[in-house]
Amino acid sequence: MLRHFLKMSLSVAVILALLCHQLPFSACQDSGDDEQTYAFEPEERFLDIFPLTGENFTESVLKSSDAWIVIFHSGQMKKSWKSMAVNLRGVVWVGMVDTPSEADLLENMKYKVNHDPEARVYPHGPLSLKKKSWVNAKNPNEARLLAVDSISDSSLKIKGKNLQEFLVDCFMSKPSRFPLILLTDETDTPVLYKAISHRFKRYFNAARIVRPTLDDYKFLGMEDSFFDIPLLFVLLPEIKEKKTKETQDMGFSAVVFETKKMGDLNYPNILRYLFGVNNSYRHTLPGENQSNLQEVAEMLDIVNIESKRFEVEKPKSRPGTDDNNIKFTMSKTVRDEL
Predict the structure, then answer these.
(1) pLDDT tens figures, 25-61
(2) Where are the domains of the chain?
């Protein structure tokens, strides 16, 4: 029987604190497209809109597998672009090019100032796709739709009866991957879940059960419990010994993302949740969990990526205290994406 742990212990050897600076209120308001604001406020640029130059454009945009929206400006930017960038945090990267100072970059991009639209979308995918499949966008809504639609769905659509096969796939991976499951009533995969699936695919195998039935709940061991949907959780193995150590029976418990305790299902909160699960429970995974490798135990490749978006700190560990927890301090409210 699957047991549900609604409290998650996040004690870890290494602490990550992702601190998100507060955006000025004016930057987050929806407004008419004609209203302009300066594009260079440091806290806005750090969080959601990244300066692109001839030196970093290829590495940041073209060589990234993520979708990018590139905005062209001459010192001022419409508020609607900033609002779009905030709402796409964690899903699509947004960059800006200062047209007066980046003439060489604009020439290489074949962008014509005062002729081409304000933005360009580089789709999710490899460098070869980005070079030939970028699309101009006239406004934030068009840019958002083009970028979001380019993100492929790497999550698996399963039913409860497929659970065993799904778990085998998780634990046969190298390193072993956590079974990450989303219960949802939505037929289409939420774009945030698509982004999470891609970002964490090395460590988490993402699946979704659409409009779960009673049979699905029975296979999950959840038929006697009630949860609001959408529900995000990770399955953890529990090995129970029977008579001899050679004979073992494996059951599962669940670490549930509790919105009452962890907040809305948005990108920063899900980051905190997944880092906590990996640091606390990786050593329990069957197969080659590689919990002895620092890169895997701390998901350092993801830390390197997210350090562009957040400040990543490693506070001094205090043995014997409860302070050795992953901490994500968000001072800005981001809407529920799932």
Answers:
(1) 223 334 445 566 555 454 444 468 899 999 999 999 9
(2) 3-19+153-330, 22-149
Contact present, 143 and 122 (Cβ < 8 Å) = no
Task: Tell me the fold of 3-19+153-330.
Answer: Glutaredoxin (3.40.30)
79 by Cβ neighbours in 10 Å (0-12 / 13-18 / 19+) ranks as: buried
Using a 10 angstrom Cβ sphere, with 0-12 exposed, 13-18 middle and 19 or more buried, the burial of residue 53 is middle
The CATH superfamily assigned to 22-149 is Glutaredoxin (3.40.30.10)
| Nearest partner of 133 among 52, 58, 62, judged by Cα | 62
Preceding peptide of 315 cis, ω within 30°: no
Between 287 and 45, whose confidence is greater? Answer: 287
Residue with tokens 């590689």: 290
Q: Which residue has the tokens 């953890």?
A: 236
State pTM to two decimals: 0.78
Q: Count CB neighbours of 245 within 10 A.
A: 7
Coil/strand/helix, residue 22: coil
Contact 203, 296 (CB under 8 A): yes
Q: What amino acid is encoded at 115 in this protein?
A: H
Strands (E), the chain: 3-5, 17-20, 36-38, 50-52, 68-73, 76-78, 93-98, 119-122, 135-137, 156-157, 178-184, 204-210, 231-242, 244-256, 311-313, 327-330
Here the tokens at position 87 are: 């709402």
* Closest among 41, 24, 116 to 77, alpha carbons compared: 41
Question: Do 3-19+153-330 and 22-149 fold alike per CATH?
Answer: yes
Name the 3-class secondary structure at 125.
coil
Beta-carbon contacts of 300 under 8 Å, excluding residues fewer than 6 positions away, are 294
Calculate the CA dihedral of residues 269, 274, 277, 283 and round it to 10 degrees. Answer: -160
